[in-house]
Design goal:
Layout (H helix, E strand, L loop, with lengths): L21 E7 L3 H22 L3 E7 L6 H6 L7 E7 L5 H11 L4 E4 L11 H9 L5 E6 L7 H14 L11 E7 L1 H8 L8 H7 L4 E6 L13 H15 L2 H30 L6 H35 L4 E9 L6 E3 L5 E2 L1
Parallel strand pairs: 1-2, 1-4, 2-3, 5-7
Antiparallel strand pairs: 3-8, 4-6, 5-6, 8-9, 8-10
Length: 348
């Protein structure tokens, strides 16, 4: 069978999915200063969701190779109104791998992804949950309401990225959508079935389909510190997304090749015109050098683009695990004891 079914997780009653609970996945990297405060806000959120929907919650903290005391703080968090899982990866594998680790370890039905830097307000989660339980949406994703506080260059880069990645794709990725989103049980199950290792969560969460709704919001200021996503990392993530989810770079390379061939044809016609009609001899060295440099540069760019895709293919063929787990602990609300599983070392 080439397809897969998740219809058994939908349920006829829109409130029935609430019985399966909610897992809140929070990737953290060097968030020791603000993690306790975030956990207190999530505990209050879990209490509110329990009262309103009877929704049992857990939080899954994914420590992505932090170098400060994040793991120690996470180990000491109390399961107040929600269970607490702490998954420590063996090194920094990146946010996409951390999100996958959270999805793999989530024990409840629905899964919510949010950042650990305080910019994703836990209070907004109630609105996302309402769209899921009350309105029956399977994917509730958030997007920045505006980018007025960002530079013109950054806004141009974002617009260019989404234009390229959506070029020719049947399932468009919503512009400005972030990783702060909620997946219903069947949407989470569908996302788990996707086999690729080079994952781009924004694209995959849109690609699976189902009923989706956008929620605009204004990110809160960071609770502490500065973002680790500098221009270089953002560029790398953009290239990762483009090459993992779109063939636009290959199409641009093909179109550029056609354009150069057309320009070369016109240049050849101009040489014939000047030689046959006007009787002028065209100097060979300058035109030859310029032509070779142009064609050579374009060829190198095309080889680089093709190399990115070949690298993705090689990574998929190697089939290495997306991450390794160095430590895993669970604390339940109804039990004060932690279940530590340091022997669990890998997951795919």
């Amino acid at each position: 069978m080439l397809g897969a079914g998740v219809s058994d997780l939908s349920g006829g009653d829109l409130r029935a999915p609430a019985a399966q609970g909610l897992s809140i996945v929070v990737p953290v990297f060097n968030e020791a200063v603000g993690l306790s405060r975030l956990h207190d806000r999530l505990s209050a959120l879990a209490e509110s969701l329990k009262e309103r929907y009877g929704l049992a919650c857990e939080v899954v903290y994914i420590d992505d190779g932090s170098t400060d005391g994040t793991l120690d703080v996470a180990r000491g968090l109390i399961p107040d109104h929600l269970d607490v899982q702490v998954v420590s990866l063996s090194r920094n594998f990146g946010k996409e791998a951390a999100l996958m680790a959270g999805l793999d370890h989530a024990r409840r039905g629905a899964v919510l992804f949010m950042d650990g830097d305080g910019q994703h307000a836990p209070e907004l989660v109630q609105r996302l949950v309402s769209h899921w339980i009350d309105d029956g949406f399977d994917v509730v994703y958030t997007a920045k309401a505006n980018r007025d506080n960002e530079s013109t260059l950054r806004r141009f880069g974002v617009r260019t990225f989404y234009t390229l990645i959506n070029w020719g794709n049947r399932q468009k990725i919503p512009e400005d959508a972030g990783d702060f989103r909620l997946l219903s049980p069947r949407a989470a199950a569908a996302l788990r079935q996707l086999p690729e290792r080079n994952r781009f969560f924004k694209g995959l969460a849109s690609w699976i389909g189902f009923r989706q709704i956008r929620v605009d919001y204004e990110p809160d200021a960071r609770a502490h510190g500065v973002t680790t996503f500098n221009a270089g990392r953002l560029l790398g993530l953009s290239i990762e997304g483009l090459t993992s989810f779109s063939v636009a770079p290959l199409r641009i390379a093909s179109l550029l090749g056609l354009l150069l061939a057309f320009v070369a044809f016109l240049f050849g016609l101009s040489i014939l015109w000047e030689t046959i009609i006007d009787g002028k001899s065209v100097p060979g060295y300058p035109s030859l050098v310029v032509g070779l440099m142009t064609i050579g540069g374009v060829q190198l760019v095309m080889i680089g683009v093709v190399g990115e895709y070949i690298g993705k293919i090689l990574s998929e063929i190697k089939a290495r695990p997306i991450y390794f787990v160095a430590e895993h602990s669970i604390k339940s609300v109804d039990s004060t004891s932690a279940l530590d599983n340091p022997s669990r070392t890998a997951a795919e």
